[in-house]
Amino acid sequence: MRVLEVKGLRAGYGQMEIVSNVTFDVGDREVVAVVGPNGSGKSTLLKAVFGLCRVFSGAVLFKGEDVTRLPPHKRSRLGMAYLPQTGNVFESLTVRENLMLAAHDLDEEEVRKRLEGVLSLFPELGGLMRRKVRTLSGGERQIVALSMSLLRNPSLVMLDEPTAALAPRLVKQALKRVVELRDEAGVSIVLVEQNALSALEVSDKALLMVSGTVKFWGGARELLEDRELAKTYLGL
Amino acid sequence: MLDLLVGALVYSNLLALMAVGLSLALITCRVSNFAHGDFAMVGVYVAYTLSVVAGLTPYAWIPAAFAFGGLVSLLAYLLVFEPLRERTDLVTLMVVSMALDMVLRYSLHVYADLMQQWLRVYTRLFMFDDFLVEAAGSRLPGVLPASTAVVAALLASLYVLLYKTRVGVAMRAAIENPGLAEALGVSVRRVFALSWFLSGALAATAGVFLPFRIMVSPDTGWSMLLPTFAAVTVGGIGSLGGSVLGAYLIGFSETVLAYQLAQVGISTAYRPLLTFAAIIVTLLVYPRGLSGLWSGKGWSLRRRS
Ligand SMILES: Nc1ncnc2c1ncn2[C@@H]1O[C@H](COP(=O)(O)OP(=O)(O)O)[C@@H](O)[C@H]1O
Ligand SMILES: [Mg+2]
After folding, report:
1. Contact status, residue B44 vs residue B111, Cβ threshold 8 Å
2. Is any atom of ligand 1 closer than 6 Å to the C-beta of A41?
3. Is the ipTM of this complex over 0.85?
């Protein structure tokens, strides 16, 4: 069974349709890159899949269950995780409080166990626990945000430009870590990325969005090798 | 002189409960809730009714007023403000809250009529009987120690709730960024429902103290609204700590000014002048209010804009 199936999704804000007729799917432990020019509707697509914007028609299936009309917090409880592009941490809270919040519906034993797991993935988190998030660097915040998602033991993590706040030299390394997550935490990943080349190199599948519609859906390698599309839309 | 101090303190205590409650509505749903004063009046009539029917001083019915005021406010959130949250603009929210004020106020008027027929007591322009306490050689009205103790206990509990419990972390998180909290599995609706319950509960508690000082009617809530807004504005919109501070500043300066006016023979009916002036001057000079001065530190909850 596919972890995520999106069928003919139309979504947007108010009366405005931003994303039109998008169909794709994500298999177990797959990394799917969503790429495309700025403003092509990548963020809106993730929001629609997670239930944070208006869906006009189409369906979202998570592990075979239709979740199209489910509120976001219920999708989260089913095992979907979504990391927004901005505002993905609570700035006025400490790192510990941020993590506590992500684990708010678990019992203490479970929280301790999962926290250990997250700390082994991100050892640097240990020294930051008491810090207010607003005092952290962009990279540190990204780690906190990712840890919050992982604490919930999701089977699918959707990341919206996780490298946007990082210095260019750190991007490749960060994306490599994202893929390690797939292997170590056993999750499927949908990765929206501006750095198309780096993203496609670490992904299994690719979805190319242009003006709210799908221009390409298939293997990440195939998209890289399609000179025409790569040049026109990704500047590669 | 002592009278003046007592009056200022009681009034400020009352404003502090009102202002923190109003702030809770503001930071969760961004609604300048004009019905907030009515929640206070709900508290008044709950305590009045119970003390007439079952005896005992109105002070004994504070828990009932707290619960009932909270319930009314909770319903206002669930039926009116939650459906409008994220879906409408600030002006619409404000107008809706004015409409809600009318609905509640006239409901209170209807209730006051019914209560008058039913219990054969005055239900407008009434006051509660207070007890007196001996302190430092003078007799003080009981509402001073009573309101001070209740305000201290409620504010301390609110602090513990917000900063030492899981629910509190969820409340602060949902206030800062409701979308993200929701994404992490928090039911923002539930968390905000709790905030609104507390908002009305605090106002209703404040209400119980009111008839110990002044004569009240269903419309009295409306006149409490202006100084409450002033306290919230002066303290910095969105900051609970600021609201408390603002309440004592407005409470004391308003009382002292009214006294000065009376001294020179000007009617104390003009005391809202100061309150309005405080709002305008604060917004001009310190748009973020007093809490802007310690921004981010301490008891400051803000929504990301
Ligand atoms: N909250 C919103 N309300 C209305 N329009 C929006 C909103 N967010 C994004 N848009 C519009 O949707 C389009 C797609 O934006 P977005 O999904 O952020 O693209 P991308 O992530 O690919 O850069 C843009 O034209 C943008 O102006
Ligand atoms: Mg985007």
Report:
1. no
2. yes
3. no
Sign of the alpha-carbon torsion through A212, A218, A220, A225: negative
Domain A1-79+156-167+177-236 bears CATH identifier 3.40.50.300: yes
Contact B16, B151 (CB under 8 A): yes
Helix (H) or strand (E) run with residue A65 in it? strand A65-66
Q: What pLDDT score was predicted for residue A24?
A: 98
Enumerate the residues of chain B whose CB falls inside 8 A of the CB of residue A88.
180
Token digits of residue B161: 């709730």
Helix (H) or strand (E) holding A32: strand A31-35
Number of neighbours of residue B217 by Cβ within 10 angstroms: 18
Tokens standing for residue B275: 């309150």
- Per-residue pLDDT at B295: 55
Going by alpha carbons, the residue nearest to atom 8 of ligand 1 is A44
- B44-76 burial: b if 16+ Cβ within 10 Å, else e: bbbbbbbbeeeeebbbebbebbbebbbebbbeb
The amino acid at A149: S
- What tens digit of pLDDT does each residue of B184-210 get? 989 999 999 999 999 999 999 999 999
If 0-12 CB within 10 Å is exposed, 13-18 middle and 19+ buried, where does residue B81 land?
A: buried
By Cβ distance, the residue of B180, B184, B185 closest to A87 is B180
Per DSSP bridges, beta strands A16-26 and A4-13 are: antiparallel
Q: Whose CA is nearest to atom 25 of ligand 1?
A: A39
Contact partners, residue B70, CB within 8 Å, separation at least 6: B197, B198, B199, B200, B201, B204
How confident is the model over A29-66, as pLDDT tens digits? 999 999 999 999 999 999 999 999 999 999 999 999 99
Q: Which two tokens stand for residue A205?
A: 């599948």
Tell me the torsion sign for CA atoms B158, B25, A130, A145: positive
Domain ranges of chain A: 1-79+156-167+177-236, 84-153
Tokens of B28: 């969760």
B172: left (phi over 0), alpha (psi -120 to 50) or beta: alpha
Pairing mode of beta strands A188-192, A16-26:
unpaired
Q: In the prediction, which pLDDT does B300 show?
A: 60
Q: Mean of the pLDDT values across residues B252-262?
A: 87
Pocket test for ligand 1, best of A34, A35, A44 (most atoms within 8 A of CB): A44
> Strands A188-192, A31-35: parallel, antiparallel or unpaired by DSSP?
parallel
Q: Where are the alpha helices (DSSP H) in B30-142?
A: 36-54, 62-76, 82-84, 90-119
Q: Coil, strand or helix: which one is B238?
A: coil
pTM higher than the cut 0.90: no
